[in-house]
Amino acid sequence: MLGPLGAQLERYMDLLSTRQKLVASNIANVDTPGYLTQDIDFQSEFQHALGGAPHAQPVEGLAVRNDGNNVSIDRESRLLAENALRFQAASSLLHSQIQMVRAAIKEGQGS
Amino acid sequence: MSLFSAIAVGASGMAAQRARAEVLVENLANADTTRTPEGGPYRRKDVIFETSPVAEEFSSIFASQVGGGGVAVAGVITDTSDPERRYMPGHPDADADGYVAFPRVNPAEDMVDLMGAARGYEANVAAISAVKDMIQRSIDLLR
What we know:
The structure holds two protein chains of two kinds.
Chain A: H1 3-28, E1 38-39, H2 42-47, E2 57-58, H3 73-109
Chain B: H1 2-29, E1 45-52, H2 60-66, E2 70-78, E3 84-87, E4 99-102, H3 107-140
Antiparallel strand pairs in B: 1-2, 3-4
């Protein structure tokens, strides 16, 4: 009903919420020995266009501490804020799409 | 719903950091305790964290594919190093040579760990509030 843009926005928001869950998980495990930062490859997952569940993978290039943990709280804070803002933008866009459909329905009902 | 399980993950982090803070406060409180039910001076305790899946009512199959679990306290370890011996002949717990066994607790170390636990707790609270905002945004789509 909302067309291809609506479907893409839905996928985008779905991926963002998945990523946000991984960020929350990374933050929760900031003191777990041996835990490695998990993330999804956002670009390639989005290119898959509506296909399947995304899969998480360890992030490379982060400094590993003595206990084998490589969670960077700075990176996770940035992603936390970034994901929330992206989600906000996507939800505003989806909202305007829904408003357009609603307007069309209301016009059809007559005044 | 992935977002609701993200809240559960954040909550597990808060619970784990709180448990860690409790153990650290116990260490600070007992920094000079020379008598315990097990006998001998108090021994420093610390928690070990492990990744654990969060309880989820729905869509557990989807969640297992994505991975990313919460955190749980795997266990509490007790310091096994020898107690610190101080020469206090008048002390009721002094041994034959006049030495009293005191806990090997370094208050500075525990204070630093306690600050780490408090920061970890705050980070989890921030994660939950960001996820909560996202859920609220989704609900607002219906308005």
